[in-house]
Amino acid sequence: MVTNPVHGLPFIPGASFTDCTKTAFHRSQTLGYRNGYAVARRPTVGIGGQRLQVNELSQAELDELASKAPTLTYGQPKQAPPAYFVPAHVAFDKKVLRFDAYFQEDIPVSAEEHYRIRQVTIYYYLEDDSMSIVEPIVENSGIPQGKLIKRQRLPKNSVGDHYHWKDLNRGINITIYGKTFRIVDCDRFTKDFLESQGIELNPPEKMALDPYTELRKQPVRKYVTPSDFDQLKQFLTFDKQVLRFYAIWDDTDSMFGECRNYIIHYYLMDDTVEIREVHERNDGRDPFPLLVNRQRMPKVLVDNAKNFPQCVLEISDQEVLEWYTAKDFIVGKPLTILGRTFFIYDCDPFTRQYYKEKFGISDLPPIDISKHEPPPVKQELPPYNGYGLIEDSAQNCFVLIPKPPKKDVIKMLLNDNKVLRYLAALESPIPEDKERRFIFSYFLATDMISIFEPPVRNSGIIGGKYLGRTKVVKPLSSVDDPDYYGPGDFYIGAVIEVFGHRFIILDTDEYVLKYMESNAAQYSPEALASIQSRVQKQEAPAPAPENMQAKPDLSVQGMEALISAIKTHLKDHPCKDGIRDALQAYDKEASGYMDKEVFFKICETLSVPLDDSLVKELIEMCCHGEDKIDYYNFLRAFSD
After folding, report:
1. Is the whole-model pTM more than 0.90?
2. What sequence ranges are listed for the domain EF-hand (predicted)?
């Protein structure tokens, strides 16, 4: 047994050694779980299972250590040295807060100005909390400016308090010696100092301007020397001579605007203008004769100052640079008078003669102002998106709230429940599709087509509805003006292309033959010839081979004999009334087939004698598969 060579040595500095024979170095687990929660726990052993050196003390020893004063061991603590004293006149030497402000001074004895804005600068000295107010000197102001208040501590109120830098901020009013100063801004040092002391500054304001000072900055008004024109001579020469113009004011571009007629009178005796409104009978307007009273019309105004009163009784020559004269009124040109644009389209004979003698203008033809109706805009439909019928999609372009397209009600009433049925085959290169047969149903009331594929047992193809009722577009027709298939396109041998699939018409029912005979004008000679050849083939017996004798179709002959027997047997039975409508109402696609379960329910409702042996045999012959029945042949036994 190998013992630890260092076991028993005292644990003192210089006498501790690493155990070279130790082989376990794992650490003990410090994480545990209690009631499903992870809980940390204190390790009881050290690395490799080594015992921990724990010095356990009793509660009395712990209390003694807690109440033991450190001064008995280390002595009394020394006091910290006092902070270095810096006087205020040294710490804040040459540090001044600067604020921009202004105050308003009333001027009661001046006719040119009622108040005056005086801009000042407020200085606050941090070393002794003193303040001074200085007004910048303006040359030739006539006001004693400069230092308004010398540097001193300014009283804040009657109690004896003085203004402190904490009382100053942007956007406030302060009252000093009876005058109210408005502080609008400060410099960068002042802003940084106040924000460093925790004061939130208000946003800066614009400095108010003195209106009289701004008025003096405007250029001097230029006066025009009065002319030596003799106005009395003008009055005596052109007395009772008036130029008459016919004008319109077209305001149709604005909301609820219209085109109105006016007569403009220009008085040559004093160059005044008068505008009269032309009223018509029952125009719905108050009969005010004058739109603009007789006065001189300004053409170019002077740019007046901001404080110039805009509401005046009369406009003098000082506010107008140019007036309207007779040469400004020309037929065929627009004219803007007091903000309203008039178009002069004609004048009277005296005016034409005056312009010819005065200005040499001899050609003043009247202008036709009658508005011609614009040509109707052809409504173009957007490209067809391929969803639904184009008639339904086009309704969204005609009205805001689309309405269903109008239907030919007369056609729907005349052709109600009239369906043309055809037998067709699918033209496909796939061998499995060559034996598939389809029943086309053409509804004469709506010109819609439905396709039904009779289910064939063990064919691997699920029969049933192949295409619901819809209008089918011919392959070469345009998208904007589609050409749909009509009854004249369906005949034996015709090729019908339905959404990329080509079908060949093989046969028709007897109703189609009767419809084509009664409506021969709708069909082409080729279609009528195909029907005639079919009828001739049905009437002529098929030639039998020489070595064989033709055998009759026993199943067809048996069904015809059975139908004749049932007609005789159920001649007076009440079930014959309404059975056709009931069965065709369920078969909305007019496929000729329906479920057996629904068929029997309808027959029981109409009291059809299903227990009769002849009816049972006919139902067995009409069965098509396990769950379908051909009710067309069944209805032949119940129709006259």
Report:
1. no
2. 574-609
